[in-house]
Amino acid sequence: MSELTIWTYDWVPEGPRGLVRDLRLRWACEEAGLSYAVRTVPFDGRETNHLARQPFGQVPFLNDGELEMFESGAGLLHLAGKSDKLMPVDPVGEAQTRQWTIAALNSIEMVSVPWWFLKVSGAEKNQLTGWMSLRLDQLEKVLSEREWLVAGRFTVADLLMADVLRVPDVRSFGDRPATEAYVARATDRPAFKKARADQISHFEAADERRSRQKAG
Ligand SMILES: N[C@@H](CCC(=O)N[C@@H](CS)C(=O)NCC(=O)O)C(=O)O
Q1: Which of 98, 117, 198, 200 has its CA 20 to 30 A from that of 16?
Q2: Domain 91-189: assigned CATH number
Q3: pTM for this entry
Q4: What's the pLDDT band for 1 if we cut at 50, 70, 90?
Q5: Neighbouring residues of 174: CB distance < 8 A, sequence distance ≥ 6
Q6: Domain boundaries, the chain
């Protein structure tokens, strides 16, 4: 069995398929050529059924041998330490990759998730709209001046930033050509396509299992 195990739910409804955050870890492993297994915890009862491994009842979490980790960002940085395909080895490149990885989580996703939540809850224009717009405009300026965030090459920071930005409601919020080209460039990578297809197949197989169980 592989040393690396990515944990996700055994099933999710159709809406989030292709967006569940285990995809971030799958994508990183695919980019780096790291072999991994995928295992599951039940979606039903998630609030309490795996709190010992993920204290908020969420996915993903990761095992590397005996090491257990939660938070997709922490898992990505851990995987990045295994391959220079994900993070440059020179100190400046490494520090800047860490910086932009945290920026994806703490400056963009920190706004985009609550904004998205209010939007899908019915508040199309909400109190976070201005903040969200400002953040994406600021990022648009950065992305109009460079192809990738760090060191002129794809890193784990791009993987995470593109994953945050590709959420359909975020991607279609305003017209930002450099950001759109960046997301298209990142998601055109074979490693992303494989990770996404594998996640979708994983949940489709779960549908089949569930309908067999119901039938029999
Ligand atoms: N900050 C966490 C967020 C994880 C997260 O939101 N996971 C979603 C799936 S993509 C989840 O488990 N949602 C179910 C829930 O929150 O109950 C991370 O990046 O790992």
Answers
A1: 98
A2: 1.20.1050.10
A3: 0.97
A4: very low
A5: 133, 136, 137
A6: 4-84+191-215, 91-189
